[in-house]
Amino acid sequence: MPKSNTIPVVLTIAGSDSGGGAGIQADIKAISATGSYAASVITAITSQNTLGVLDILPIPLAHIESQLDAVFQDLNIVAVKIGMLADADIINLVADKLEQYQPKHIVLDTVMVATSGDLLLKETAIGSLKDRLLPLASIITPNLPEAAALTGLAEPKDAEQIEHMVTAMRQLSTSAVLLKGGHLEASDESDDLLITQNETHRLSTERIRTPNTHGTGCTLSSTIASFLAQGEDMLSAVSHAKQYITQAIGHADLLKVGQGRGPVDHFFMLHQ
């Protein structure tokens, strides 16, 4: 008989991607692949594939609320990853429920735009995101366009401009920020900055040249939540998540899924 161990439970609150590369589907794959148990609350249904987002159907608020109550009242949820929330009403509901149930770790992926460029968060909801969810988050994980939207600054175009954004990141009402530098495609390195009030840690890997990056933000944030749920400290969780997503991107071309921007390989370890 195998030994019985209590598996840490991670809840993902996000939208569904019918193509399976991002959103809830990517989150469940990433959480499972890194050794945690994945539960989910679906906030929206997208008609989506590797070519883009065709349609978005927000889930009724009452059903989002019932999903949240169902999982929190039964499961020992250690960490929560938040992805696509679509509008201010959903943001406020999720914030209310997180304040009610108070999970130990909250990883907020500030999802605003899909890899394809499609808008996933109404611009009128950005204020609600900043006011209600940022103060609750253990860490937020914006890419450069999202960081620009959160701060009102211009999107950085080089490493020097990213450094100037660190001060603005510290002024946001959240505990830590992982500022992702993946959009600086001219660079041979893929640098992310883990920013706290007192320290900045640079996490650097060699840039992998591939168009198949669908779901990278969802996957990275879910993996951070998974490692936090397993008891790692923030720097360790983010570092291990960075290593995981780098390998998942590195194996993405082998999947050959779809005709557009394909997904990363969440289970690369099974294909080696």
UniProtKB/TrEMBL annotation:
Name its pathway: Cofactor biosynthesis; thiamine diphosphate biosynthesis
Q: Report the EC number(s), separated by commas if there are several.
A: 2.7.1.49
Its Gene Ontology molecular function terms? Answer: hydroxymethylpyrimidine kinase activity; phosphomethylpyrimidine kinase activity
Keywords, comma-separated and alphabetical:
Kinase, Transferase
**CDD domains from the entry?**
HMPP_kinase
Question: SUPFAM superfamilies annotated for this entry?
Answer: Ribokinase-like
Q: Which residues form a coiled coil?
A: none
> What superkingdom does the record give?
Bacteria
* InterPro entries cross-referenced by the UniProt entry: HMP/HMP-P_kinase_dom, PM/HMP-P_kinase-1, Ribokinase-like
What this protein is called in its record is hydroxymethylpyrimidine kinase
Q: What is the lineage of its organism?
A: Bacteria, Pseudomonadati, Pseudomonadota, Gammaproteobacteria, Vibrionales
